[in-house]
């Protein structure tokens, strides 16, 4: 547990103590860095909380690509395949963060990769090292599973996540571009619409 002591009164004599105590503004009192937030393996009961938190963060307006891929079925896919690398951060049994990881291995390739697929922290708890604790624990689990490299990807405009990943130590960034093609005007789509009308 880390404690932040931003301000320490200079105490001259024991008789100063009572005065000092009354003068300490409440915002300078020792603040827990992450108050009673527990990091543990995800359970089935956590699924609704994980989905709900993801729904609020991976919105169509902020992150269209993440939004398209995020849904309950995606959480179930990762959870059923890789329980040991699905972690949640909870406060009083409420999900306030999660890290969902999976393992990639190709036949004939001895390297195993640990992919951090989804990471999120409730904005009310941001910058309290919740993500750092989640990813550290995930990293340990990957190492225990003899994984030699961790992978992560996110949108280029997701500056907060990029700042976090870089600070954590991820590097060797490669650009990957998503393209799309609207199929509404495909002849078969037009034909179907014509027949439906
Ligand atoms: C990115 C995210 C997971 C970070 O969670 P967090 O719990 O606030 O991050 P931490 O407190 O563990 O940050 C650790 C360090 O990373 C860096 N960092 C984290 N967020 C940052 C931000 N918004 N701006 C700059 N640096 C940041 C800082 O160096 C920070 O240490 P410091 O606070 O002592 O300076 C969180 O903002 C989030 O859920 N974003 C939306 C979902 C998302 O984009 N997920 C990633 C793609 S799947």
How would you explain this protein's 3D organization?
The chain is of the alpha+beta class. It has two domains: 1-33, no CATH class; 35-196, Gcn5-related N-acetyltransferase (GNAT) (Aminopeptidase, 3-Layer(aba) Sandwich). The protein is 35% helix and 20% strand. A hairpin with a 6-residue loop joins β5 and β6 (112-121). The model is unreliable at 1-31 (pLDDT under 50). Residues 57, 118-121, 126-132, 154, 158, 160-161, 163-164, 167 line the site of coenzyme A.
What keywords describe this structure?
disordered N terminus, binds coenzyme A, single chain, 2 domains, 197 residues, Aminopeptidase, globular, five-stranded mixed β-sheet, alpha+beta, 7 helices
Quick summary:
By secondary structure, the chain is of the alpha+beta class.
Number of strands: 7
Count, helices: 7
Q: Would you tell me the overall average pLDDT?
A: 85
Q: Name the CATH class of the largest domain.
A: Alpha Beta
The assigned CATH architecture of the largest domain is 3-Layer(aba) Sandwich
Content-based structural category: alpha+beta
Question: How many distinct domains?
Answer: 2
Molecules bound to protein:
coenzyme A
Helix content: 25-40%
SSE map:
Layout: E1 3-4, H1 17-23, E2 31-32, E3 38-41, H2 47-57, H3 64-69, H4 72-81, E4 86-91, E5 94-105, E6 112-121, H5 130-144, E7 149-152, H6 159-168, H7 187-196
Parallel strand pairs: 6-7
Antiparallel strand pairs: 1-2, 3-4, 4-5, 5-6
Residues 57, 118-121, 126-132, 154, 158, 160-161, 163-164, 167 line the site of coenzyme A.
């Amino acid at each position: 547990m880390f404690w932040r002591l931003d301000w320490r009164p200079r105490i001259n004599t024991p008789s100063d103590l009572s005065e000092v105590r009354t003068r300490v503004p409440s915002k300078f009192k020792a603040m827990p860095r992450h108050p009673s937030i527990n990091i543990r393996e995800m359970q089935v009961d956590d699924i609704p909380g994980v989905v709900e938190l993801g729904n609020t963060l991976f919105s169509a307006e902020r992150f269209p690509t993440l939004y398209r891929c995020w849904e309950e079925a995606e959480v179930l896919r990762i959870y059923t395949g890789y329980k040991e690398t699905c972690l949640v951060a909870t406060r009083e049994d409420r999900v306030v963060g999660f890290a969902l990881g999976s393992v990639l291995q190709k036949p004939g390739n001895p390297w195993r990769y640990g992919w951090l697929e989804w990471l999120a922290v409730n904005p009310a708890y941001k910058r309290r090292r919740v993500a750092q604790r989640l990813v550290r624990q995930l990293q340990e689990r990957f190492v225990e599973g003899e994984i030699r490299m961790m992978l992560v990807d996110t949108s280029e405009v997701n500056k907060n996540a990029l700042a976090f990943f870089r600070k954590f130590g991820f590097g060797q960034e490669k650009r990957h571009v998503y393209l799309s093609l609207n199929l509404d005007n495909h002849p078969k789509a037009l034909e179907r619409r014509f027949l439906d009308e």
